Amino acid sequence: MAKLPDLLGNWLNGVYMPKIQIIDLLEILILAFLIYICIVWIQRTRAYTLLKGFLFVIAFVAIASVLRMSVILWITQNIASIALIALVIIFQPELRKALESLGNRNFVSSFFRLDSSDKNQLFADQTITEIVRAVNEMSEVRTGALIVIEQNIFLNEYIDTGIILNAEVSSQLLINIFEHNTPLHDGAVIMRGDKILAATCYLPLSDNVRINKKYGTRHRAGLGISEVSDSFTIIVSEETGRVSYAYMGELTTGVTASELREQLHQIQKRGSRTEKNDTGRLRFRRGGRDE
User: Fold this and answer.
1) What's the mean pLDDT when you consider all of the chain?
2) What is the pTM of this model?
3) Which of 11, 107, 142, 212 has the fewest CB atoms below 10 angstroms from its CB?
4) pLDDT at residue 114 above 80?
5) So what's the pLDDT on residue 17?
6) At residue 227, what are phi and psi to the nearest 5 degrees?
7) Which long-range contacts (CB under 8 A, 24 or more apart) does 136-139 make?
8) The sheet that has 163-168: what strands, in order across it?
């Protein structure tokens, strides 16, 4: 036992202990900050879902390496360079947006802003009441409407296509926006929390071949935005006044006011959101006559 301190001292003398200076600590903080920004950026874009799939492939290759699966490793080595090029192509829209945001003077503050997406609730109960009231009134008079409620994935690229409002949600404002022959009635309204961020926004149309031909551009746009984000989209048919909603690539039609309110309450709190379904899956609830 008496030799134990000597042995420990000799071992410590043989261990290389670099001198840590202030510049080293500063470098660590800068790298940690950049990594944090990258993680936050990825989580707020469609790249997050793609990245999870990529990490799954990496884990599979790692297991194959441990188990010495020579054929799989040979295939991986030969397609590695092609895979890197494919990743750049897949993430091209997100990379372009990231580079554009570098020139924005609000770039840093955008990662630390305190908006409704950072609260326990996505929006207030009063917001749900105003949305349901507006949808009911527009449904009764057959006023077409397209309301997109943003969740985790930011919809800035679609917000930029519209007219910025940044107004508190109210049933009167929503009804006035979608009133016939008004400047803002064409296109979609995008909400974030308790705010209507923009109107007349252009959304991507779904190219799902399973969509019934009776559904027009408004339904295809609502379904399209649900296929590329986790947003919840409410659709009011101009032809029949029927209410539908699109979520995670799934279209539900013939929705009553109570059902719509229940769905909004389910996504209001993060812990009670509807589980994600397979993208492109369609579910039609038929109540009354078809659109």
Assistant:
1) 78
2) 0.62
3) 11
4) no
5) 63
6) -85, -20
7) 136/257, 137/171, 137/175, 138/174, 138/175, 138/178, 138/236, 138/241, 139/236, 139/241, 139/242, 139/243
8) 163-168, 195-201, 188-192, 145-149, 232-236, 243-247, 250-252
* 8 A C-beta contact, residue 218 and residue 208: no
Other Cβ atoms less than 10 A from the Cβ of 218: the count is: 21
Q: At what angle do helices 125-140 and 257-268 cross, to 10 degrees?
A: 150
Predicted confidence at residue 285, as pLDDT, reads 45
Q: Are 139 and 236 in contact (CB under 8 A)?
A: yes
Residues 6+ apart with CB under 8 A from 17: none
Closest C-alpha to 192, from 268, 262, 244, 115: 115
Per-residue CA distances from 290 to 48, 239, 271 (Å):
37, 11, 34
pLDDT for res 98? 62
Residue 181, SS3 per DSSP: coil
The span from the CA of 275 to the CA of 68, in Å, is: 37
Residue type for 254, please? Answer: G
Would you state the structure tokens that stand for residue 287, as one six-digit string?
């109540």
Segments in the chain forming alpha helices (H): 4-14, 22-43, 47-66, 70-90, 92-102, 107-112, 125-140, 156-159, 171-177, 217-228, 257-268
Alpha-carbon distance of 186 to 218, in angstroms, equals: 10
pLDDT digits 0-9 by tens, 216-243 = 889 999 999 998 888 999 999 999 999 9
Longest dimension (CA), the chain: 94
Two tokens at 267?
Answer: 């996504």
